[in-house]
Design a protein that fits this description.
globular, mainly beta, about 230 residues, 19 strands
């Protein structure tokens, strides 16, 4: 009979490794050389939540929801941590990182949540929602096949923000002092542009190209079948 394992390891060295384990709960920490961290997560089913914390520490918590998944966490360099989930079943991951961390998040069937990050963010899934909240990043990419994508954060000068979902809704809530060039395309769902003073280069029911301010940042929104909604932060 295979017994569940509980692992709680604090790693202080510049590089650390944990092999794949089957677990109902998993806790592991990595102390980094600097707050400019990089986190890569690859999972299959469940949930990925990444939250900004304090200091130079990455904390990985995982809870098995069903099945027999395997979890591996590894510090591959002084500033880079990789988390891999394989096997069958759902795993709920909650990872705390330094705010300036760069994120690479990939999952087939996962809700992905990112909160309070100022580093670059790339989040990709096939199914499930992607929610980016209180994000102040210079580069954001979010891609989903059928899930909705929501962005609530800042658009920085010279930043690049690309949100794409084939059949899900794409929504953004942006500050009143927005300065960007907008490219938005929805072939079936429609486009709502909110209470902004846009200067339009193109405007149809399926495609919009417009500028506000000096147009320094690039905001690209796309969905084949869902709706696009641009909202002004209250």
């Amino acid at each position: 009979m295979k017994l569940p394992l509980r692992i709680c390891i604090s790693l202080i060295s510049a590089a650390a490794f944990s092999g794949p384990v089957t677990a109902q709960s998993f806790n592991q920490s990595f102390r980094l050389a600097s707050p400019a961290a990089e986190l890569e997560v690859n999972s299959t089913r469940g949930e990925i939540k990444v939250i900004a914390g304090e200091g130079n520490v990455v904390k990985v918590k995982a809870k098995e929801k069903d099945g027999n998944p395997k979890i591996k966490a590894e510090q591959v360099s002084p500033g880079r941590v990789q988390v891999e989930v394989s096997g069958k079943g759902k795993v709920k991951l909650e990872i705390i990182v330094p705010p300036s961390s760069s994120l690479h998040l990939n999952c087939y069937d996962c809700n992905i949540t990112v909160r309070g990050i100022t580093g670059a963010v790339r989040a990709v899934n096939a199914e499930g929602e992607i929610q980016l909240t209180n994000v102040r990043s210079p580069r954001v990419e979010a891609h989903s096949t059928s899930g909705s994508i929501a962005f609530h954060g800042e658009v920085l000068p010279s930043g690049s923000y690309t949100l794409k979902s084939f059949s899900g809704r794409v929504s953004v809530e942006l500050p009143a002092n927005l300065d960007c060039h907008l490219s938005a395309a929805s072939f079936r769902g429609g486009i709502g542009l909110g209470d902004f003073d846009w200067r339009f280069k193109k405007q149809t029911d399926k495609l919009v190209e417009a500028t506000i301010g000096e147009g320094r940042a690039a905001l690209n929104l796309w969905t084949q079948e869902g709706t696009i909604q641009v909202m002004r932060k209250q």
